[in-house]
């Protein structure tokens, strides 16, 4: 593993499988009455959020607290950033206060990369979503969810997603989730197909390790998992598609379309869902939709990433592996 | 003023000769010229070029003296071998009145490192709505002949047409920054494979090419000449080539950085590579080199764009666009065009001095190196190899994309009307 987690593309197959396996161990902690490990006791993690995000921030915070880290939450709103302080000064200020790792969410693509590589700070940097670039922990939790559902929590250990066919549908152009998933799923051996209206597929997509289709119905029967991306209503004002209704008709997932998927196939959504737009309530609330499970898995994945980046090399006082043995 | 004898210089890269400067002019060329009464400079086979002329410089004064002033910018220009620079109009206030252009012109004269020829804004406040008083700027002491809203595109076709027509009355030229604004909203880098991966807003080649296509046709229609700033795409080259073959009076420039760097560098997210127009692909770079070699592109212009450190020491989206270029331009041209065999030194003299002086009507600049001509000269040690160290720049800003890169060539002497502004690689 590298020192930072900036892009899903930075992970090797073995790195990714190690994170998924570690997350399985972390998930067992969540099933205990006391959901806490002492692994990061005395370490301080800063959640540096320059962009509004409730889900991801809370998920990281839960993961950090379950590992006993001290947590500092920094939200750009109401902070010195709104008074014009730069990313560099903000990060250096926080590091001067003794931060051991920085989890950063930023609206500018590449901001976490800059933070990790510009020599501004020394602490490991975990990308919690940057612009339309990457959101690696989301891709990891998605892969984790797929492996658990398609192979099984125990049977999946050590396994990748070789040969699985994953379809990602929606606003690929503006989606860091899509970019991260294409990279990671490819690394894990899955076959990825992106489905979107041509306006929402980036120019230059031809070099991505995936297929692109404009026809959702033809792809559905061949999918082991269908991941629906959020489509913001305001996109239609920029002529990416004519109306919400037309988008839903052509690219939304409703009950009829879900019926065309193989029986074992999952419906996934990174949230927040726009019900009635890319997904109907019928599908969102069905047993095949893993949206809520993905949230739970997100905590396990983020615990695994924090553990591996911050504590993974130390003979941990109570490594999760030891805990697992104790459980048995 | 005293005499200077430059001994054994390869004039325009030719056979070594002696060149005698007397006062402000070149007195004689030949071999074995008498050094009597003259300061002797042993050129030892260095290349002697006419003083370089930059048709596209941002000197930032008035308004952004934290990034550059006329003094620091002209010192940088002299260091880079320039004897004349055209200062773009996007200052604060904008150079859209006779008052502002005269101020910039006079500052250049007072400091004396390099002649400064102000460029006037085409439209009031660079807003693209209303023509600035182009005639008044032309008639001012600054004698403006080149007009540009550079940094912004004159995107309104009617305003562009009128500007092209209007400046014919006094032989002016409009220099267009070709960037269709709607196609580049939120644009951060060249749109293509790299932008798709990095998730940075794409800047399509067509946003440049569509404006160039429109403007060469407008120029043809109204019988005007038009100059296109900083061509950056292979498609733009094809359009200009087509326009020239059709007899349209168009000239075009390319920057040194577009001859060398590609959008692959943006993978570092280091804003030192953020520039307008953006760095393009290898294919574009090769097309630009070829076009500069075959004359489709007339000149090299630096688009020297100084920015203070804090405007680059940040995340990509927040960073300012632009690179400094005056002090590295000739080295980059040597590396990309001369050392590759695409241009001779005589061609370099054309692309970086004769042709830009002609397009901008810079009197006394871009003249042949012969007896009786003004002694605006640049002596280049083309054998030199060294890493670019921004700490040594005369420019107030350090936003160079070449830091730590090895580039060939070094200016050892620059003469402005017979007076040395650079001696042994140092500002005089």
Automatic annotation (TrEMBL), chain A:
<feature type="binding site">
    <location>
        <position position="230"/>
    </location>
    <ligand>
        <name>L-aspartate</name>
    </ligand>
</feature>
<dbReference type="GO" id="GO:0004070">
    <property type="term" value="F:aspartate carbamoyltransferase activity"/>
</dbReference>
<feature type="domain" description="Aspartate/ornithine carbamoyltransferase Asp/Orn-binding">
    <location>
        <begin position="163"/>
        <end position="309"/>
    </location>
</feature>
<dbReference type="InterPro" id="IPR006130">
    <property type="entry name" value="Asp/Orn_carbamoylTrfase"/>
</dbReference>
<keyword id="KW-0665">Pyrimidine biosynthesis</keyword>
<dbReference type="Pfam" id="PF02729">
    <property type="entry name" value="OTCace_N"/>
</dbReference>
<feature type="domain" description="Aspartate/ornithine carbamoyltransferase carbamoyl-P binding">
    <location>
        <begin position="3"/>
        <end position="147"/>
    </location>
</feature>
<dbReference type="Pfam" id="PF00185">
    <property type="entry name" value="OTCace"/>
</dbReference>
<dbReference type="GO" id="GO:0005829">
    <property type="term" value="C:cytosol"/>
</dbReference>
<comment type="function">
    <text>Catalyzes the condensation of carbamoyl phosphate and aspartate to form carbamoyl aspartate and inorganic phosphate, the committed step in the de novo pyrimidine nucleotide biosynthesis pathway.</text>
</comment>
<dbReference type="GO" id="GO:0006520">
    <property type="term" value="P:amino acid metabolic process"/>
</dbReference>
<comment type="similarity">
    <text>Belongs to the aspartate/ornithine carbamoyltransferase superfamily. ATCase family.</text>
</comment>
<dbReference type="InterPro" id="IPR036901">
    <property type="entry name" value="Asp/Orn_carbamoylTrfase_sf"/>
</dbReference>
<dbReference type="InterPro" id="IPR006132">
    <property type="entry name" value="Asp/Orn_carbamoyltranf_P-bd"/>
</dbReference>
<keyword id="KW-0808">Transferase</keyword>
<feature type="binding site">
    <location>
        <position position="176"/>
    </location>
    <ligand>
        <name>L-aspartate</name>
    </ligand>
</feature>
<feature type="binding site">
    <location>
        <position position="55"/>
    </location>
    <ligand>
        <name>carbamoyl phosphate</name>
    </ligand>
</feature>
<feature type="binding site">
    <location>
        <position position="272"/>
    </location>
    <ligand>
        <name>carbamoyl phosphate</name>
    </ligand>
</feature>
<feature type="binding site">
    <location>
        <position position="105"/>
    </location>
    <ligand>
        <name>carbamoyl phosphate</name>
    </ligand>
</feature>
<comment type="pathway">
    <text>Pyrimidine metabolism; UMP biosynthesis via de novo pathway; (S)-dihydroorotate from bicarbonate: step 2/3.</text>
</comment>
<feature type="binding site">
    <location>
        <position position="56"/>
    </location>
    <ligand>
        <name>carbamoyl phosphate</name>
    </ligand>
</feature>
<comment type="subunit">
    <text>Heterododecamer (2C3:3R2) of six catalytic PyrB chains organized as two trimers (C3), and six regulatory PyrI chains organized as three dimers (R2).</text>
</comment>
From TrEMBL, chain B:
<dbReference type="InterPro" id="IPR032466">
    <property type="entry name" value="Metal_Hydrolase"/>
</dbReference>
<comment type="similarity">
    <text>Belongs to the metallo-dependent hydrolases superfamily. DHOase family. Class I DHOase subfamily.</text>
</comment>
<dbReference type="GO" id="GO:0044205">
    <property type="term" value="P:'de novo' UMP biosynthetic process"/>
</dbReference>
<comment type="pathway">
    <text>Pyrimidine metabolism; UMP biosynthesis via de novo pathway; (S)-dihydroorotate from bicarbonate: step 3/3.</text>
</comment>
<dbReference type="GO" id="GO:0008270">
    <property type="term" value="F:zinc ion binding"/>
</dbReference>
<dbReference type="GO" id="GO:0005737">
    <property type="term" value="C:cytoplasm"/>
</dbReference>
<dbReference type="InterPro" id="IPR050138">
    <property type="entry name" value="DHOase/Allantoinase_Hydrolase"/>
</dbReference>
<feature type="binding site">
    <location>
        <position position="303"/>
    </location>
    <ligand>
        <name>Zn(2+) 1</name>
    </ligand>
</feature>
<feature type="binding site">
    <location>
        <position position="307"/>
    </location>
    <ligand>
        <name>substrate</name>
    </ligand>
</feature>
<keyword id="KW-0862">Zinc</keyword>
<feature type="binding site">
    <location>
        <position position="150"/>
    </location>
    <ligand>
        <name>Zn(2+) 1</name>
    </ligand>
</feature>
<dbReference type="GO" id="GO:0004151">
    <property type="term" value="F:dihydroorotase activity"/>
</dbReference>
<dbReference type="InterPro" id="IPR002195">
    <property type="entry name" value="Dihydroorotase_CS"/>
</dbReference>
<dbReference type="InterPro" id="IPR011059">
    <property type="entry name" value="Metal-dep_hydrolase_composite"/>
</dbReference>
<feature type="binding site">
    <location>
        <position position="90"/>
    </location>
    <ligand>
        <name>substrate</name>
    </ligand>
</feature>
<keyword id="KW-0665">Pyrimidine biosynthesis</keyword>
<comment type="function">
    <text>Catalyzes the reversible cyclization of carbamoyl aspartate to dihydroorotate.</text>
</comment>
<dbReference type="Pfam" id="PF12890">
    <property type="entry name" value="DHOase"/>
</dbReference>
<dbReference type="InterPro" id="IPR024403">
    <property type="entry name" value="DHOase_cat"/>
</dbReference>
<dbReference type="GO" id="GO:0006145">
    <property type="term" value="P:purine nucleobase catabolic process"/>
</dbReference>
<feature type="binding site">
    <location>
        <position position="276"/>
    </location>
    <ligand>
        <name>substrate</name>
    </ligand>
</feature>
<keyword id="KW-0378">Hydrolase</keyword>
């Amino acid at each position: 593993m590298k020192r930072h987690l900036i892009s899903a593309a930075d992970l090797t197959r073995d790195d990714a499988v190690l994170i998924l396996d570690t997350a399985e161990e972390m998930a067992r902690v969540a099933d205990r009455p006391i959901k806490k490990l002492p692994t990061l006791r005395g370490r301080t993690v800063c959640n540096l959020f320059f962009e509004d995000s409730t889900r991801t921030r809370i998920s990281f915070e839960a993961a950090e607290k379950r590992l006993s880290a001290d947590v500092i939450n920094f939200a750009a709103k109401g902070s010195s950033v709104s008074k014009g302080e730069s990313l560099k000064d903000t990060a250096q200020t926080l590091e001067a206060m003794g931060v051991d790792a920085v989890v950063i969410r930023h609206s500018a693509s590449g901001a976490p990369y800059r933070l990790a590589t510009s020599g501004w700070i020394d602490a490991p940097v975990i990308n919690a979503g940057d612009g339309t670039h990457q959101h690696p922990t989301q891709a990891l939790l998605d892969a984790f969810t797929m492996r658990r559902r398609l192979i099984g929590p125990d049977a999946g250990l050590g396994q990748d997603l070789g040969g699985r066919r994953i379809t990602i549908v929606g606003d690929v152009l503006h989606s860091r989730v899509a970019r991260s998933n294409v990279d990671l799923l490819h690394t894990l051996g899955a076959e990825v197909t992106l489905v979107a209206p041509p306006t929402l597929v980036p120019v230059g997509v031809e070099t991505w390790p995936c297929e692109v289709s404009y026809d959702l119905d033809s792809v559905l029967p061949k999918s082991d998992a269908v991941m629906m991306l959020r489509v913001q209503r305001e996109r239609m004002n920029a002529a990416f598609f004519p109306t919400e209704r037309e988008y839903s008709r052509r690219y939304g997932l409703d009950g009829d379309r879900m019926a065309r998927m193989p029986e074992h196939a999952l419906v996934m959504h990174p949230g927040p869902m726009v019900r009635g737009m890319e997904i109907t309530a019928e599908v969102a609330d069905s047993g095949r939709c893993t949206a809520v499970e993905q949230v739970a898995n997100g905590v396990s994945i983020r615990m695994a990433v924090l553990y591996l980046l911050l504590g993974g090399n130390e003979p941990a006082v109570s490594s999760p592996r030891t805990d697992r043995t104790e459980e048995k | 003023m005293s005499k200077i004898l430059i001994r054994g210089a390869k004039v325009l890269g030719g056979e070594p000769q002696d060149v005698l400067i007397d006062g402000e002019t070149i007195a004689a060329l030949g071999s074995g010229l008498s050094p009597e009464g003259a300061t002797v400079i042993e050129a030892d086979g260095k290349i002697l070029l006419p003083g370089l002329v930059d048709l596209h410089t941002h000197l930032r004064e008035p308004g952004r003296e934290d990034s550059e002033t006329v003094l620091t910018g002209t010192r940088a220009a002299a260091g880079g071998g320039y004897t004349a620079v055209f200062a773009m109009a996007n200052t604060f206030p904008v150079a859209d009145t006779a008052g502002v252009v005269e101020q910039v012109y006079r500052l250049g004269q007072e400091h004396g490192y390099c002649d400064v020829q102000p460029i006037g804004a085409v439209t009031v406040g660079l807003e693209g709505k209303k023509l600035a008083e182009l005639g008044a700027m032309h008639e001012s002491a600054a004698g403006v002949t080149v007009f540009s809203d550079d940094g912004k595109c004159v995107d309104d076709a009617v305003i562009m047409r009128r500007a092209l027509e209007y400046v014919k009355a006094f032989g002016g030229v409009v220099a267009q920054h070709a960037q269709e604004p709607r196609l580049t909203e939120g644009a951060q880098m060249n749109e293509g494979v790299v932008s798709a991966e990095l998730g940075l807003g794409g800047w399509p080649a067509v946003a440049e090419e569509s404006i160039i296509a429109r403007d060469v046709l407008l120029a043809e229609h109204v019988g005007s000449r038009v100059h296109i700033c900083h061509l950056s795409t292979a498609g733009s080259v094809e359009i200009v080539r087509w326009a020239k073959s059709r007899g349209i009076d168009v000239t075009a420039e390319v920057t040194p950085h577009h001859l060398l760097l590609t959008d692959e560098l943006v993978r570092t997210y280091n804003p030192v590579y953020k520039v307008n127009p953006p760095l393009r692909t290898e294919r574009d770079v090769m097309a630009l080199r070829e076009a500069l070699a075959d004359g489709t592109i007339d000149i090299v212009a630096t688009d020297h764009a100084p920015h203070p450190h804090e405007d680059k020491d940040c995340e990509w989206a927040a960073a300012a666009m632009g690179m400094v270029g005056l002090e590295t331009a000739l080295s980059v041209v040597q590396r990309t065009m001369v050392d590759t065999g695409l241009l001779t030194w005589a061609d370099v003299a054309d692309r970086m001095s004769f042709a830009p002086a002609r397009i901008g009507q810079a009197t006394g600049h871009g003249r042949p190196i012969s007896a009786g001509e003004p002694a605006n000269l640049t002596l280049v040690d083309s054998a030199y190899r060294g890493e670019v160290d921004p700490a040594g720049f005369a420019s107030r800003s350090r936003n160079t994309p070449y830091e730590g890169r090895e580039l060939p060539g070094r200016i050892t002497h620059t003469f402005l009307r017979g007076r040395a502004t650079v001696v042994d690689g140092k500002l005089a």
